[in-house]
Automatic annotation (TrEMBL):
The keyword Oxidoreductase applies. NCBIfam families: Dxr (TIGR00243), PRK12464.1 (NF009114). Belongs to the DXR family. Residues 143-230 form the 1-deoxy-D-xylulose 5-phosphate reductoisomerase C-terminal domain. Residues 1-129 form the 1-deoxy-D-xylulose 5-phosphate reductoisomerase N-terminal domain. GO terms for biological process: isopentenyl diphosphate biosynthetic process, methylerythritol 4-phosphate pathway involved in terpenoid biosynthetic process. PANTHER family: 1-DEOXY-D-XYLULOSE 5-PHOSPHATE REDUCTOISOMERASE, 1-DEOXY-D-XYLULOSE 5-PHOSPHATE REDUCTOISOMERASE, CHLOROPLASTIC. This is 1-deoxy-D-xylulose 5-phosphate reductoisomerase. Transmembrane segments: none annotated. Residues 262-378 form the DXP reductoisomerase C-terminal domain. InterPro entries: DXP_reductoisomerase (IPR003821), DXP_reductoisomerase_C (IPR013644), DXP_reductoisomerase_N (IPR013512), DXPR_C (IPR026877), DXPR_C_sf (IPR036169), NAD(P)-bd_dom_sf (IPR036291). It comes from Aerosticca soli.
Length: 388
Protein backbone atom coordinates (compact mmCIF):
# COMPACT_ATOMS: atom_id res chain seq x y z
CA UNK A 1 0.00 0.00 0.00
CA UNK A 2 1.00 3.65 -0.43
CA UNK A 3 1.37 5.91 2.60
CA UNK A 4 1.32 9.45 1.21
CA UNK A 5 2.46 11.88 3.90
CA UNK A 6 4.42 9.10 5.61
CA UNK A 7 6.56 11.50 7.69
CA UNK A 8 3.55 13.14 9.35
CA UNK A 9 1.56 12.31 12.45
CA UNK A 10 -1.01 10.14 10.61
CA UNK A 11 1.80 8.63 8.53
CA UNK A 12 3.64 7.56 11.69
CA UNK A 13 0.51 6.05 13.26
CA UNK A 14 -0.28 4.20 10.00
CA UNK A 15 3.23 2.75 9.74
CA UNK A 16 3.03 1.70 13.39
CA UNK A 17 -0.15 -0.32 12.71
CA UNK A 18 1.26 -1.73 9.47
CA UNK A 19 4.43 -2.89 11.28
CA UNK A 20 2.26 -4.83 13.76
CA UNK A 21 0.88 -6.94 10.88
CA UNK A 22 3.78 -7.73 8.55
CA UNK A 23 2.06 -10.79 7.09
CA UNK A 24 -0.98 -8.74 6.15
CA UNK A 25 0.26 -5.28 5.06
CA UNK A 26 3.28 -3.86 3.33
CA UNK A 27 4.16 -0.19 2.81
CA UNK A 28 5.31 -0.33 -0.82
CA UNK A 29 5.22 3.44 -1.45
CA UNK A 30 6.24 6.17 1.00
CA UNK A 31 6.15 9.93 0.42
CA UNK A 32 7.28 13.10 2.17
CA UNK A 33 7.29 16.80 1.38
CA UNK A 34 10.83 18.02 2.17
CA UNK A 35 12.16 16.03 5.10
CA UNK A 36 14.69 13.78 3.33
CA UNK A 37 16.25 12.47 6.56
CA UNK A 38 12.89 11.35 7.97
CA UNK A 39 11.90 9.71 4.66
CA UNK A 40 15.23 7.83 4.45
CA UNK A 41 14.81 6.59 8.04
CA UNK A 42 11.33 5.27 7.15
CA UNK A 43 12.72 3.60 4.01
CA UNK A 44 15.41 1.84 6.07
CA UNK A 45 12.74 0.53 8.40
CA UNK A 46 9.95 -0.34 5.94
CA UNK A 47 11.88 -1.11 2.70
CA UNK A 48 9.34 0.30 0.19
CA UNK A 49 9.64 -0.20 -3.56
CA UNK A 50 9.20 3.51 -4.24
CA UNK A 51 10.04 6.65 -2.26
CA UNK A 52 8.58 9.97 -3.43
CA UNK A 53 9.77 13.40 -2.36
CA UNK A 54 7.22 16.10 -3.21
CA UNK A 55 9.80 18.88 -3.48
CA UNK A 56 11.49 18.07 -6.83
CA UNK A 57 14.69 19.96 -5.95
CA UNK A 58 15.48 17.31 -3.34
CA UNK A 59 15.48 14.27 -5.65
CA UNK A 60 19.29 14.17 -5.96
CA UNK A 61 19.87 14.35 -2.21
CA UNK A 62 17.27 11.64 -1.61
CA UNK A 63 18.97 9.37 -4.12
CA UNK A 64 22.40 9.83 -2.49
CA UNK A 65 21.11 9.37 1.06
CA UNK A 66 19.15 6.23 0.17
CA UNK A 67 22.23 4.76 -1.53
CA UNK A 68 24.38 5.63 1.49
CA UNK A 69 21.83 3.93 3.77
CA UNK A 70 21.90 0.80 1.60
CA UNK A 71 18.26 1.10 0.52
CA UNK A 72 17.51 0.06 -3.04
CA UNK A 73 14.19 1.47 -4.22
CA UNK A 74 12.82 3.57 -7.04
CA UNK A 75 12.70 7.33 -6.49
CA UNK A 76 10.02 9.79 -7.59
CA UNK A 77 9.93 13.55 -7.20
CA UNK A 78 7.29 16.27 -7.55
CA UNK A 79 3.52 16.27 -7.57
CA UNK A 80 3.35 14.28 -10.82
CA UNK A 81 5.28 11.46 -9.18
CA UNK A 82 2.85 11.51 -6.25
CA UNK A 83 -0.12 11.29 -8.60
CA UNK A 84 1.50 8.45 -10.56
CA UNK A 85 2.32 6.59 -7.35
CA UNK A 86 -1.27 6.96 -6.07
CA UNK A 87 -2.66 5.51 -9.28
CA UNK A 88 0.16 3.08 -10.05
CA UNK A 89 0.56 -0.67 -9.85
CA UNK A 90 2.72 -0.70 -6.70
CA UNK A 91 -0.31 -0.27 -4.42
CA UNK A 92 -3.92 -1.43 -4.12
CA UNK A 93 -4.57 0.81 -1.11
CA UNK A 94 -3.68 4.49 -0.64
CA UNK A 95 -3.50 6.14 2.76
CA UNK A 96 -4.06 9.82 1.94
CA UNK A 97 -2.25 11.53 4.83
CA UNK A 98 -0.80 14.64 3.18
CA UNK A 99 -1.93 17.84 4.90
CA UNK A 100 -3.93 20.50 3.06
CA UNK A 101 -4.74 21.19 -0.58
CA UNK A 102 -1.36 19.65 -1.48
CA UNK A 103 -3.06 16.24 -1.15
CA UNK A 104 -5.86 16.97 -3.62
CA UNK A 105 -4.44 15.60 -6.88
CA UNK A 106 -3.01 12.39 -5.42
CA UNK A 107 -6.25 11.69 -3.51
CA UNK A 108 -8.31 12.17 -6.67
CA UNK A 109 -5.89 10.02 -8.67
CA UNK A 110 -6.20 7.16 -6.17
CA UNK A 111 -10.01 7.38 -6.34
CA UNK A 112 -10.03 7.47 -10.14
CA UNK A 113 -7.72 4.44 -10.28
CA UNK A 114 -10.14 2.42 -8.14
CA UNK A 115 -7.82 2.09 -5.16
CA UNK A 116 -9.04 1.43 -1.67
CA UNK A 117 -8.75 4.99 -0.37
CA UNK A 118 -8.14 5.44 3.36
CA UNK A 119 -8.71 9.13 3.76
CA UNK A 120 -7.18 11.41 6.37
CA UNK A 121 -6.63 14.39 4.04
CA UNK A 122 -9.98 16.08 4.80
CA UNK A 123 -9.03 19.22 2.85
CA UNK A 124 -9.35 17.34 -0.46
CA UNK A 125 -12.97 16.38 0.31
CA UNK A 126 -13.75 19.91 1.48
CA UNK A 127 -12.32 21.38 -1.73
CA UNK A 128 -13.56 18.87 -4.24
CA UNK A 129 -16.29 16.72 -2.65
CA UNK A 130 -18.39 16.19 -5.81
CA UNK A 131 -15.30 15.55 -7.99
CA UNK A 132 -13.98 13.02 -5.48
CA UNK A 133 -17.32 11.18 -5.33
CA UNK A 134 -17.47 11.03 -9.13
CA UNK A 135 -13.88 9.75 -9.28
CA UNK A 136 -14.72 7.05 -6.73
CA UNK A 137 -17.80 5.96 -8.66
CA UNK A 138 -15.93 5.85 -11.96
CA UNK A 139 -12.91 4.12 -10.43
CA UNK A 140 -15.05 1.55 -8.63
CA UNK A 141 -12.93 1.66 -5.48
CA UNK A 142 -14.06 2.44 -1.97
CA UNK A 143 -13.36 5.15 0.57
CA UNK A 144 -12.95 4.48 4.26
CA UNK A 145 -12.54 7.57 6.42
CA UNK A 146 -9.63 7.82 8.85
CA UNK A 147 -10.67 11.14 10.40
CA UNK A 148 -11.80 9.83 13.80
CA UNK A 149 -15.28 11.41 13.75
CA UNK A 150 -16.07 10.11 10.27
CA UNK A 151 -14.58 6.75 11.03
CA UNK A 152 -16.85 6.62 14.12
CA UNK A 153 -19.91 7.53 12.02
CA UNK A 154 -18.91 4.98 9.37
CA UNK A 155 -18.84 2.37 12.14
CA UNK A 156 -22.27 3.45 13.48
CA UNK A 157 -24.04 3.43 10.10
CA UNK A 158 -25.66 0.27 8.70
CA UNK A 159 -23.33 -1.93 6.64
CA UNK A 160 -25.73 -1.66 3.68
CA UNK A 161 -24.38 1.89 3.03
CA UNK A 162 -27.90 2.87 1.87
CA UNK A 163 -28.77 6.60 1.72
CA UNK A 164 -29.22 8.05 5.23
CA UNK A 165 -32.96 8.73 4.85
CA UNK A 166 -33.66 5.11 3.88
CA UNK A 167 -31.58 3.87 6.81
CA UNK A 168 -33.70 5.79 9.31
CA UNK A 169 -30.85 8.17 10.17
CA UNK A 170 -32.06 11.46 11.58
CA UNK A 171 -28.81 13.26 12.45
CA UNK A 172 -25.06 12.88 12.45
CA UNK A 173 -23.48 14.28 15.60
CA UNK A 174 -19.82 15.20 15.33
CA UNK A 175 -18.03 15.56 18.63
CA UNK A 176 -15.36 18.24 19.14
CA UNK A 177 -12.89 18.44 21.99
CA UNK A 178 -13.22 22.23 21.96
CA UNK A 179 -9.44 22.50 21.62
CA UNK A 180 -6.96 24.10 24.01
CA UNK A 181 -8.90 27.38 24.20
CA UNK A 182 -12.35 26.07 25.13
CA UNK A 183 -14.10 28.51 27.45
CA UNK A 184 -11.82 31.48 26.71
CA UNK A 185 -13.30 34.86 25.79
CA UNK A 186 -12.40 36.82 22.65
CA UNK A 187 -10.31 39.18 24.77
CA UNK A 188 -8.33 36.26 26.14
CA UNK A 189 -7.96 34.75 22.67
CA UNK A 190 -6.46 37.94 21.24
CA UNK A 191 -2.99 37.18 22.60
CA UNK A 192 -2.71 33.37 22.37
CA UNK A 193 0.49 32.04 20.75
CA UNK A 194 1.16 29.29 18.17
CA UNK A 195 2.83 27.18 20.89
CA UNK A 196 -0.33 27.35 23.01
CA UNK A 197 -2.53 26.58 19.99
CA UNK A 198 -0.46 23.50 19.09
CA UNK A 199 -0.75 22.04 22.60
CA UNK A 200 -3.93 20.04 22.15
CA UNK A 201 -5.38 18.61 25.37
CA UNK A 202 -6.16 15.11 24.02
CA UNK A 203 -4.52 14.47 20.63
CA UNK A 204 -0.98 14.82 19.27
CA UNK A 205 -1.23 16.04 15.69
CA UNK A 206 0.48 18.07 12.97
CA UNK A 207 0.71 21.83 13.47
CA UNK A 208 -1.88 22.86 10.88
CA UNK A 209 -4.66 20.60 12.19
CA UNK A 210 -3.74 21.59 15.76
CA UNK A 211 -4.40 25.26 14.96
CA UNK A 212 -7.60 24.23 13.14
CA UNK A 213 -8.70 22.42 16.30
CA UNK A 214 -8.01 25.52 18.36
CA UNK A 215 -10.12 27.76 16.06
CA UNK A 216 -12.78 25.03 15.57
CA UNK A 217 -12.15 25.30 11.81
CA UNK A 218 -11.19 21.64 12.02
CA UNK A 219 -14.76 20.83 13.07
CA UNK A 220 -16.07 23.11 10.32
CA UNK A 221 -14.01 21.22 7.72
CA UNK A 222 -15.31 17.98 9.23
CA UNK A 223 -18.95 19.12 8.89
CA UNK A 224 -18.32 19.67 5.17
CA UNK A 225 -16.47 16.35 4.98
CA UNK A 226 -19.45 14.55 6.61
CA UNK A 227 -21.86 16.22 4.18
CA UNK A 228 -20.00 14.75 1.20
CA UNK A 229 -18.92 11.38 2.59
CA UNK A 230 -22.32 10.42 3.98
CA UNK A 231 -24.67 12.47 1.76
CA UNK A 232 -25.98 14.34 4.82
CA UNK A 233 -27.90 17.61 4.42
CA UNK A 234 -26.30 20.53 6.36
CA UNK A 235 -29.26 20.77 8.76
CA UNK A 236 -28.84 17.11 9.74
CA UNK A 237 -25.25 17.59 10.90
CA UNK A 238 -24.70 18.78 14.44
CA UNK A 239 -21.57 19.58 16.43
CA UNK A 240 -21.32 18.83 20.13
CA UNK A 241 -18.35 19.81 22.29
CA UNK A 242 -17.13 16.83 24.31
CA UNK A 243 -13.91 17.76 26.11
CA UNK A 244 -12.86 14.18 27.05
CA UNK A 245 -12.60 13.05 23.39
CA UNK A 246 -13.74 9.53 24.30
CA UNK A 247 -16.97 9.52 22.26
CA UNK A 248 -15.67 10.02 18.72
CA UNK A 249 -19.09 10.82 17.15
CA UNK A 250 -22.67 9.56 17.05
CA UNK A 251 -25.53 8.68 14.71
CA UNK A 252 -29.12 9.41 15.73
CA UNK A 253 -31.87 7.21 14.30
CA UNK A 254 -35.59 7.87 13.78
CA UNK A 255 -36.54 5.52 16.63
CA UNK A 256 -34.58 7.59 19.16
CA UNK A 257 -31.48 5.36 19.22
CA UNK A 258 -28.11 7.07 19.43
CA UNK A 259 -25.19 4.91 18.32
CA UNK A 260 -21.74 6.07 19.33
CA UNK A 261 -18.18 4.82 18.89
CA UNK A 262 -15.96 5.19 21.95
CA UNK A 263 -12.29 4.64 22.58
CA UNK A 264 -9.14 6.27 23.83
CA UNK A 265 -8.04 9.23 21.70
CA UNK A 266 -5.44 7.43 19.58
CA UNK A 267 -5.66 7.64 15.78
CA UNK A 268 -4.37 4.07 15.46
CA UNK A 269 -7.90 2.79 16.24
CA UNK A 270 -9.46 4.55 13.24
CA UNK A 271 -6.45 3.68 11.07
CA UNK A 272 -6.52 -0.02 12.02
CA UNK A 273 -10.28 -0.09 11.43
CA UNK A 274 -9.86 1.42 7.97
CA UNK A 275 -6.90 -0.82 7.10
CA UNK A 276 -8.66 -4.07 8.00
CA UNK A 277 -12.32 -3.22 7.30
CA UNK A 278 -14.60 -5.18 7.38
CA UNK A 279 -12.36 -7.23 9.65
CA UNK A 280 -10.83 -6.07 12.94
CA UNK A 281 -7.18 -6.12 13.92
CA UNK A 282 -5.03 -5.19 16.89
CA UNK A 283 -3.98 -1.51 16.83
CA UNK A 284 -1.67 -1.17 19.83
CA UNK A 285 -4.22 1.07 21.56
CA UNK A 286 -4.89 0.79 25.29
CA UNK A 287 -8.54 -0.23 25.73
CA UNK A 288 -10.80 2.42 27.24
CA UNK A 289 -11.51 1.68 30.91
CA UNK A 290 -14.92 3.29 31.37
CA UNK A 291 -14.97 2.74 35.15
CA UNK A 292 -11.72 4.73 35.45
CA UNK A 293 -12.65 7.34 32.80
CA UNK A 294 -13.67 10.88 33.72
CA UNK A 295 -17.39 11.73 33.49
CA UNK A 296 -18.45 12.34 29.90
CA UNK A 297 -19.61 15.92 29.33
CA UNK A 298 -21.31 17.49 26.31
CA UNK A 299 -22.11 21.11 25.48
CA UNK A 300 -23.09 23.16 22.44
CA UNK A 301 -20.23 25.00 20.70
CA UNK A 302 -19.74 28.76 21.10
CA UNK A 303 -20.10 29.97 17.51
CA UNK A 304 -19.72 33.64 18.40
CA UNK A 305 -16.29 33.23 19.95
CA UNK A 306 -15.15 30.51 17.55
CA UNK A 307 -16.26 32.12 14.28
CA UNK A 308 -14.54 29.61 12.03
CA UNK A 309 -17.14 26.92 12.68
CA UNK A 310 -19.94 29.33 11.73
CA UNK A 311 -18.02 30.31 8.58
CA UNK A 312 -17.68 26.67 7.54
CA UNK A 313 -21.46 26.14 7.87
CA UNK A 314 -21.92 29.34 5.85
CA UNK A 315 -19.62 28.04 3.08
CA UNK A 316 -21.38 24.67 3.05
CA UNK A 317 -24.77 26.35 2.64
CA UNK A 318 -23.40 28.66 -0.09
CA UNK A 319 -22.31 25.51 -1.96
CA UNK A 320 -20.25 25.36 -5.17
CA UNK A 321 -16.61 26.17 -4.54
CA UNK A 322 -17.23 28.23 -1.36
CA UNK A 323 -15.74 25.43 0.81
CA UNK A 324 -12.60 25.44 -1.39
CA UNK A 325 -12.32 29.23 -0.94
CA UNK A 326 -12.79 28.80 2.83
CA UNK A 327 -10.09 26.12 2.91
CA UNK A 328 -7.56 28.11 0.86
CA UNK A 329 -8.00 31.27 2.94
CA UNK A 330 -7.72 29.23 6.12
CA UNK A 331 -4.49 27.51 5.01
CA UNK A 332 -2.86 30.88 4.28
CA UNK A 333 -4.14 32.43 7.52
CA UNK A 334 -3.00 29.46 9.63
CA UNK A 335 0.48 29.63 8.07
CA UNK A 336 0.65 33.34 8.92
CA UNK A 337 -0.48 32.66 12.49
CA UNK A 338 2.14 29.91 12.87
CA UNK A 339 4.77 32.33 11.47
CA UNK A 340 3.78 34.88 14.10
CA UNK A 341 2.51 37.49 11.61
CA UNK A 342 -1.24 37.16 12.24
CA UNK A 343 -3.03 37.13 15.60
CA UNK A 344 -5.25 34.14 16.42
CA UNK A 345 -8.53 36.02 15.91
CA UNK A 346 -7.23 37.26 12.56
CA UNK A 347 -7.64 33.74 11.11
CA UNK A 348 -11.46 33.98 11.09
CA UNK A 349 -11.29 37.59 9.88
CA UNK A 350 -9.18 36.64 6.85
CA UNK A 351 -11.43 33.67 6.00
CA UNK A 352 -14.58 35.77 6.32
CA UNK A 353 -13.20 38.57 4.14
CA UNK A 354 -12.04 36.19 1.39
CA UNK A 355 -15.42 34.41 1.36
CA UNK A 356 -17.12 37.81 0.98
CA UNK A 357 -14.75 38.85 -1.81
CA UNK A 358 -15.16 35.65 -3.86
CA UNK A 359 -18.82 34.57 -4.13
CA UNK A 360 -19.36 30.86 -4.76
CA UNK A 361 -19.09 29.48 -8.29
CA UNK A 362 -20.07 26.02 -9.51
CA UNK A 363 -17.35 23.35 -9.33
CA UNK A 364 -16.61 22.42 -12.94
CA UNK A 365 -13.34 20.50 -12.95
CA UNK A 366 -10.12 20.13 -11.08
CA UNK A 367 -8.16 22.75 -13.03
CA UNK A 368 -10.80 25.45 -12.46
CA UNK A 369 -10.87 24.51 -8.80
CA UNK A 370 -7.09 24.74 -8.43
CA UNK A 371 -7.23 28.15 -10.12
CA UNK A 372 -9.89 29.33 -7.64
CA UNK A 373 -7.77 27.97 -4.80
CA UNK A 374 -4.90 30.13 -6.10
CA UNK A 375 -7.13 33.22 -6.40
CA UNK A 376 -8.37 32.75 -2.83
CA UNK A 377 -4.78 32.39 -1.56
CA UNK A 378 -3.79 35.59 -3.35
CA UNK A 379 -6.77 37.43 -1.83
CA UNK A 380 -5.82 36.16 1.64
CA UNK A 381 -2.16 37.19 1.19
CA UNK A 382 -3.22 40.66 0.01
CA UNK A 383 -5.33 41.05 3.16
CA UNK A 384 -2.41 39.89 5.28
CA UNK A 385 -0.08 42.46 3.69
CA UNK A 386 -2.69 45.16 4.39
CA UNK A 387 -2.98 44.03 8.00
CA UNK A 388 0.77 44.14 8.73
P1 LIG B 1 1.52 16.47 9.55
O1 LIG B 1 1.85 17.90 9.36
O2 LIG B 1 2.01 15.76 10.76
O3 LIG B 1 2.01 15.63 8.26
C1 LIG B 1 1.73 16.06 6.97
C2 LIG B 1 2.37 15.16 5.93
O4 LIG B 1 2.12 15.74 4.64
C3 LIG B 1 3.89 15.05 6.05
O5 LIG B 1 4.30 13.75 5.70
C4 LIG B 1 4.40 16.05 5.02
O6 LIG B 1 5.68 15.69 4.52
C5 LIG B 1 3.34 15.96 3.95
N1 LIG B 1 3.22 17.22 3.19
C6 LIG B 1 3.09 18.48 3.70
N2 LIG B 1 3.02 19.37 2.69
C7 LIG B 1 3.15 18.68 1.54
C8 LIG B 1 3.17 19.06 0.16
N3 LIG B 1 3.09 20.34 -0.23
N4 LIG B 1 3.28 18.08 -0.76
C9 LIG B 1 3.38 16.78 -0.40
N5 LIG B 1 3.38 16.36 0.89
C10 LIG B 1 3.24 17.30 1.86
O7 LIG B 1 -0.07 16.36 9.44
P2 LIG B 1 -1.05 15.26 10.10
O8 LIG B 1 -1.46 15.71 11.45
O9 LIG B 1 -0.47 13.90 9.93
O10 LIG B 1 -2.33 15.42 9.17
C11 LIG B 1 -2.39 14.87 7.86
C12 LIG B 1 -3.82 14.95 7.35
O11 LIG B 1 -4.64 14.12 8.19
C13 LIG B 1 -4.44 16.35 7.44
O12 LIG B 1 -5.29 16.55 6.36
C14 LIG B 1 -5.23 16.31 8.73
O13 LIG B 1 -6.33 17.20 8.73
C15 LIG B 1 -5.70 14.87 8.75
N6 LIG B 1 -6.00 14.34 10.09
C16 LIG B 1 -5.01 14.28 11.02
C17 LIG B 1 -5.29 13.80 12.29
C18 LIG B 1 -4.21 13.67 13.34
O14 LIG B 1 -4.49 13.17 14.44
N7 LIG B 1 -2.99 14.09 13.10
C19 LIG B 1 -6.59 13.37 12.61
C20 LIG B 1 -7.57 13.44 11.62
C21 LIG B 1 -7.28 13.92 10.35
MG1 LIG C 1 -11.19 14.65 13.29
Amino acid sequence: MAVLGATGSIGASTLDVIARHPARFRASVLSAHRNVEALVALCVRHRPELAVIADPTLAGILERRLAAAGVRCAIGAGETALVEAAAGALCDTVVAAIVGAAGLRSTLAAARAGKRLLLANKESVVMAGPLLLTALREGGGELIPIDSEHNAIFQCLPATRAPLGRSGVRRLILTASGGPFRGLTRTELAAVTPAQACKHPNWTMGRKISVDSATLMNKGLEVIEAHHLFGAAPETIEVLVHPQSLVHSLVEYADGSLLAQLGNPDMRTAIAHALAWPERIEAGVTPLDLAAAPPLAFETPDLTTFRCLALAFQALRAGGDAPAILNAANEVAVEAFLAGTLPFLGIAEVVEAVLAELPAQAVVDIDTLVERDRTAREAARRLLRGAC
